[in-house]
Amino acid sequence: MNTIKNIVVAGGTHGNELTGIKIYQKWAKNFSAYQEKCPSAKLELVHTNIEASTVCRRYVDRDLNRSFANRLLALKNPTAYEIRRAQELNLRFGPKGENTKTDLIIDVHNTTANMGVCLILSTRDPFTMRASAELVYEFPNAFIYYQPEERGESPYFGTIAKADICLEVGPQPHGTLDAKLFFETEQVVTRYLELAEEWNRGTLQQKPKKKVDVYTQFKDIDYPRDAFGEITAMVHPNLREADYQEVKPGDPIFMTFDGKDVLYDGEFPVHPIFIDESAYYEKKLAMSLTTKTTEEW
Ligand SMILES: [Zn+2]
């Protein structure tokens, strides 16, 4: 991205993830103070899943953050609230694709997993990479997760912009707030705005690149299940709150209800994240396995 002309900061894409909703409400009351962080771009705030937030649930009819694939955005007269909302958001901030009005979306989420402030990048966009590298040095609790996405098919809200950062902040039970995580998240979002301003002035590009640990999506794994689809094991006690830590082939990853270890049978070490995220039981996802590399960003 050469110049960042439009930035959207979003909260409440999942209606029970309160950090982003509270940032939205706080910032909306004092908008000019945040717009001033990046005067060279137009800032917009959005509360994405309003209906789900009023009942403090992740979603009403279906997951809004799984509703932005081109196929769903093109549906005629959808009945599900979240597909209608995705189409409205796409009209306002998209349309998804090369002609989108929005250069950058920062979408604020929470997770029950112990992921700190996870900066999720879906493209190798030069600004989001450069800015995120600065932020992992400024915030010891920040980590970079690279989850490459084919943008047209990707279901995530951020993919209607040219580039996006999805923040996943935790551990925080859904429907609750954690003051320390709130302020940390708010500072990270504010820094992205300030760094966008530096980018537009050309100064961020002149700073030396930094070595960063990058956790790259490898594969999602489910809990062990029986023939009826019931889970037969839990996340292993060794992995509780152990996001980003290395798991080697042969290490225990689950424990059955009889107390037996289930071992990781992969061929190389991985670094699981989103471990035991409560919203992912329905998605049959126990954790996302990543590989860790060191790169200059
Ligand atoms: Zn979320």
TrEMBL record:
Q: Which SUPFAM superfamilies match?
A: Zn-dependent exopeptidases
Q: Which family does it belong to?
A: Belongs to the AspA/AstE family. Aspartoacylase subfamily.
The Succinylglutamate desuccinylase/Aspartoacylase catalytic domain sits at: 4-195
Q: Can the keyword Membrane be found in this entry's annotation?
A: no
Q: Where is the AstE/AspA barrel-sandwich hybrid domain?
A: 211-292
Phylogenetic placement of the source organism: Bacteria, Pseudomonadati, Fibrobacterota, Fibrobacteria, Fibrobacterales
What this protein needs as a cofactor is: Zn(2+)
Fetch the CDD domains from UniProt: M14_ASPA
NCBIfam families given in the database record: PRK02259.1
Q: Which PANTHER family match?
A: ASPARTOACYLASE, SUCCINYLGLUTAMATE DESUCCINYLASE
Alphabetically list the UniProt keywords: Hydrolase, Metal-binding, Zinc
What organism does this protein naturally occur in?
Hallerella porci
The name this protein goes by in its record: Aspartoacylase/N-acyl-aromatic-L-amino acid amidohydrolase
InterPro entries (UniProt xref): AspA/AstE_fam, Aspartoacylase, AstE_AspA_cat, Aste_AspA_hybrid_dom
